[in-house]
Amino acid sequence: MAGEKKKRVRKKHQPMGLDILHEDRDIIVVNKAAGLLTMGTGRDNGRTAHAALDDYVKKGNYKSRERIFIVHRLDRDTSGALVFARTEEAKLTLQGNWEKAEKTYLAFVEGHPDPAEGLIESYLAENEARRVFETKDKRKGKLSQTRYKVIKEVGDRALMEINLLTGRKNQIRVHLADKGWPIVGDSKYGRKIRDCKRLALHSQILTFDHPFSGKRMTFKAPVPATFYSMAAAPKPEPPKKDSGKKRR
Question: How far apart are CA 7 and CA 25, in angstroms?
């Protein structure tokens, strides 16, 4: 496998919907935009992070043998840090050590979580409609663990830091919704609202061992502007105007 050698990426050459946080001969780490699939489903017309990076490494040469390999995934509506491998060997090495990876998310939720810090643990399964749900049947579900901490309360909502200890499909969304704290903008497990056009879930920090050097590496995806606006203190209501009528 080729050794680690970082390349400088010009802003204008960034693939659509992705900002490259790090690139070397073995991996590419990106900040994925909300609304972009990680990989294809057959109904996306090739508009995925995987397809965009495949085109990027081929540099317009369809005969190029350069390829991108999927290591893990983020939901379509989740933004943030995501790593891809540039060789199959790098992919297998990363996936073989993925239990050691550390994944930290930011999430805005409805309500005020109580307790403000804790561990959510349950078994998750998926039905025929591809909806994930909690089950007490260990034979049907997979053990899932999510650690959380409230950072700030804003009005009727709260900003949370989430540490994903296992990586099940829709895990954070299901765990928080079942606790009564659905993620803002989650129309699947919570409710769709007008004041947030995206799912308020962001993969902020991703830490893992480099597949070639073994070096522990940490990458941070910038916090979306939406989160800053939501975190701002709510504006106080203007004082009611005096109608001028005298009270008796």
Answer: 8
